[in-house]
Amino acid sequence: EAQVTQNPRYLITVTGKKLTVTCSQNMNHEYMSWYRQDPGLGLRQIYYSMNVEATDKGDVPEGYKVSRKEKRNFPLILESPSPNQTSLYFCASSWARHNTDTQYFGPGTRLTVL
Amino acid sequence: AQKITQTQPGMFVQEKEAVTLDCTYDTSDPSYGLFWYKQPSSGEMIFLIYQGSYDQQNATEGRYSLNFQKARKSANLVISASQLGDSAMYFCAMRDQTGNQFYFGTGTSLTVIP
Fold first, then answer.
1. Phi and psi of B30, rounded to 5°?
2. String of DSSP letters for A44-78
3. H or E stretch including B68?
4. pLDDT per residue over A22-52, tens digit each?
5. Candidate from A43, A96, A99 with C-beta closest to B104
6. Nearest Cα residue to A91 out of A16, A37, A28
């Protein structure tokens, strides 16, 4: 089944404890992206990757890191999480980065930072 | 500057009636893509419909159609014959000319009344 998977689905952590949210797609997509969703703000793009070893900042990259060492994986790293990073996080992928390509989303990761 | 504006935080519609969800966008790019996604209470993001900036005809997908008015920079979603299962949050999104960046609106919560 073609899909985007994220792990964990739910995470409660404490301020300053490094964490990684994994994202994997099995559709051989070139483009991948991370978003956070907050009430009243919609989804905001954190980072995106055009292909392996090619990443760039979205609108809200502060406090996050990403890497794209393999085409299928695009982990999101929070080196020192803070309570304002409590949010619902989505990973998404698309075939390429043409503006005609739709994105397919993972199920989301609900993160709480205490 | 906000790229996507959804001015209706919440909408109600009677079952079997049609409903229009508003979306306006802001870009100076000649080429871009416009998307609508549905987010049910379970949280996943479901792609509904796409409209390209150069498309002459309005996009349709089953009960969904996109009323694209390029000069007004609007891309309203029309849902015909509403069903109870249409109750969800709906997001309008735009993919920029480079294909790298996605901008989402703040969403419209639709409730279908039996």
1. -75, -25
2. EEEEEEEETTEEEE-S--TT-EE--SSSSB--EEE
3. strand B64-69
4. 999 999 999 999 999 999 999 999 999 999 9
5. A43
6. A37
Searching chain B, which residue's CA lies closest to the CA of residue A5? B44
Contacts of A40 in chain B (CB under 8 A): 106
Give the list of residues 6+ apart from residue A70 with CB closer than 8 angstroms, or none: A52
Taking CA–CA distances from B30, the nearest residue in chain A reads A99
Residue owning tokens 């070139």 = A30
A69-84 confidence digits (pLDDT tens)? 999 999 999 999 999 9
CA-wise closest residue to A11 among A78, A114, A84, A110: A110
Written as one letter, the residue type at A101 is D
3-state SS, residue B40: coil
